[in-house]
Amino acid sequence: MPRVAYVNGRYIEHRRAAVHVEDRGYQFADGVYEVIHLYRGRLIDEEPHLDRLDRSLGELRIAWPVARAVLGLAMRELVRRNRFTTGLVYIQVTRGVAPRDHKFPTDARAALVMTVRPIPEFPAEMRDEGVTVVTIDDLRWARCDIKSVALLPNVLGKQAAAEADAYEAWMCDAEGFVTEGTSSNAWIVTADGTLVTRPAGPDILRGITRQAIARLAAEMGIGFEERKFSRAEALEAREAFLSNSSHFVTPVTRIDDTVIANGKPGSLSAALHDRYVEFMNSSPLALGRG
Length: 290
Ligand code: PDD
Known about the structure:
290 residues, D-amino Acid Aminotransferase, Chain A, domain 1, D-amino Acid Aminotransferase, Chain A, domain 2, 2 domains, 9-stranded mixed beta sheet, 6-stranded antiparallel beta sheet, 29% helix, globular
């Protein structure tokens, strides 16, 4: 069964799927994206992801390429055609195809590409052993709340992490406060058991998993505080973890050369991970029961 991609209204064999050389996403990174976890046939937090897509498009004044409901149906059809049940749905909208000129084209139509990539179920050792992060300077622009495809600093940061045998890089602002990971939000747990993550603002992406964790933490009676925390505070934290749609809640057990607490994933991180998996398992099936 070949993989299938969606390109502007057509379902095309993935290896043949292509966009025009003058797509503005390709030339200017003039576009936005979303990643939705397809977990055992469930599209996790689909509506919040599409709400964020709507916001990103609005901030950049890109029109929806198709009506939101049509995108939802096309995404389901793509999932159906690809036949696997666990993977990542990638949705990308660019300002469209036009002769290269920085200002907005007057007659281009927004372009929509969607793919689905199978992924293995969450590796148990990541939950049980945690991952390492490195810290780097945050070199990004002032609108990180827009989920733009312009990801060069994130790419360089993730590469720096990989070269240091780490899983993620946490970016720090000029004052030494952690903003977020290159593709995840950053969290710590303080000595008194309070969850801390940076407030949503233009300097981070308001993660959908981040929002879900805040909700689940409230249900579990865990204290939650949105405030900046520094790299120095993170090194001393009782627990640290990261969150995103592909890896939910992933404990962090080392930051640069410092082992966090006793080097094992903390109990709150593990409990939140498990609660998040329960939440995913209780989400509705994307294609119904059939
Ligand atoms: N990244 N911060 C950044 C910079 C991100 O790129 C992401 C997600 C997150 C977490 O957001 P969410 O919980 O909505 O996945 C935070 C996706 C997974 C990616 O680029 O692949």
